[in-house]
Design a protein that fits this description.
Distance between the termini: 22 Å
Number of domains: 2
Strand order of the largest sheet: 5-6-4-11-12-13-10-15
Shape: globular
CATH superfamily of the largest domain: FAD/NAD(P)-binding domain
Order of helices and strands: EHEEHHHEHEHEEHEEEEEEEHEEEH
Strand content: 25-35%
Largest sheet: 8 strands, mixed
Bound molecules: flavin-adenine dinucleotide
CATH architecture of the largest domain: 3-Layer(bba) Sandwich
């Protein structure tokens, strides 16, 4: 089967990977000049944390997100399987109790266990939650590694090609993975702005994603190796994709210092921003819009849920499966 995919973010690249595995010939059209340059996927933290996400997300995100770790392990060497640690400062300990009530599959840990897991944080926190089955990836290296594999498998990439789904001919199927850019065609799609920092510190060592709870500014830090840390991310109901506010940077840095004072001497390597594509219920969706299959609405779960969405899309195209209305009924 000859398939066109529009958009080379995490949704487009995971779909291409599934389609190639089923014997399809795939061409990807990307309006940016290279992988990542215009994709929301470039700015992600890369947390594969379905149980932590259960604090606010639907149970279907927790259930289907559990497949992400093994999918990424099959397709990249980037998966760090060290779990997630969740803390709150003493004055915010009620946040930790609420988080514990809303989530599952964690162990409550005290100072000694924290010191064993993360020696740099041992003296700073006396209680926390440890989610041992969670993982994280470097999203940039991961999508670049999918790109390399797809090129080797014969997938054609057409960069600097901004196309509309209805204008492509000569393909048996067109799959729209354009993220927030599809907003004109899909009015129910909205943007949720996310700002992030990349810090470099030789004075902090972390093995796993850390979440610091706060009533207004919850923060996470994801170690990327070589002293690099992704610090994120704001969640602002806004479609703005390029402007980072002073307040957001100030608040993220403040929370990073609260996690570990050595972050005050860290180098700011990068300040990034994009808007996550989201439907009103914050759940992604695979659906036919005429003859075009749309895979969109990844919200804050692009790396967590794209593997499942890609498989749902492949089942619809290759097996003719009906796509259920509810994400809870998606089959992996
Ligand atoms: C700060 C931040 C932190 C995040 N952290 C996480 C996390 O830890 N874990 C997680 O799972 N998710 C996270 N996310 C969410 C995740 O990044 C998104 O859900 C995901 O990137 C959306 O992927 P996508 O492929 O749908 O869209 P995109 O990545 O935006 O890709 C769409 C692509 O389509 C291209 N395109 C658009 N229009 C056209 C056109 N007409 N023709 C050709 N090409 C076109 C664009 O150039 C782009 O490359 C985070 C997001 C942000 C902003």
């Amino acid at each position: 089967m000859n398939i066109a995919i529009i958009g080379a973010g995490v949704a487009g690249l995971t779909c291409a990977t599934e389609f190639v595995a089923r014997g399809a010939k795939v061409t990807i059209y990307e309006k940016g000049p290279s992988i990542g340059e215009q994709a929301c996927s470039w700015w992600a933290g890369g947390m594969l944390a379905p149980w932590c996400e259960g604090e606010t997300a639907e149970s279907s995100v927790v259930k289907l997100g559990q497949h992400a770790k093994s999918w990424w392990k099959t397709h990249t060497a980037q998966v760090q399987e060290n779990g997630t640690l969740v803390f709150a400062l003493d004055r915010d300990l009620s946040e930790l109790r609420t988080f514990a009530k809303r989530t599952t599959d964690y162990q409550s840990v005290g100072a000694q266990e924290i010191a064993q897991l993360e020696p740099d944080l041992g003296e700073r926190f006396s209680q926390g939650l440890f989610f041992p089955e969670e993982a994280h990836i470097d999203p940039r290296k991961s999508i670049l590694s999918l790109f390399d594999q797809l090129v080797s498998a014969g997938v054609i990439f057409k960069f600097n090609c901004e196309v509309e789904p209805g204008t492509l001919s000569g393909f048996e199927c067109v799959v729209d993975c354009t993220g927030l850019a599809a907003q004109d065609a899909i009015p129910e799609l909205r943007g949720v702005k996310g700002e992030m920092l990349l810090l470099r510190s030789r004075d902090v060592t972390l093995q796993r994603s850390i979440r610091l709870l706060h009533p207004r500014i919850p923060l996470y830090v994801v170690p990327r190796g070589n002293g690099l840390f992704m610090v994120g991310a704001t969640m602002i109901e806004n479609t703005e994709r390029t402007r980072v506010s002073a307040r957001s940077v100030f608040e993220m840095l403040g929370s990073a210092f609260a996690l570990h004072p050595a972050f005050s001497e860290a180098e700011i390597v990068e300040i990034g921003v994009d808007a996550r594509p989201a439907y009103l219920n914050n759940l992604p969706k695979v659906n036919w819009r005429g003859k075009v299959l749309t895979v969109n609405g990844m919200y804050r779960h692009g790396f967590l849920l794209a593997p499942v969405m890609a498989r749902v899309a492949a089942n619809a195209i290759f097996e003719g499966y009906q796509i259920p209305e509810l994400m809870d009924e998606y089959c992996y």
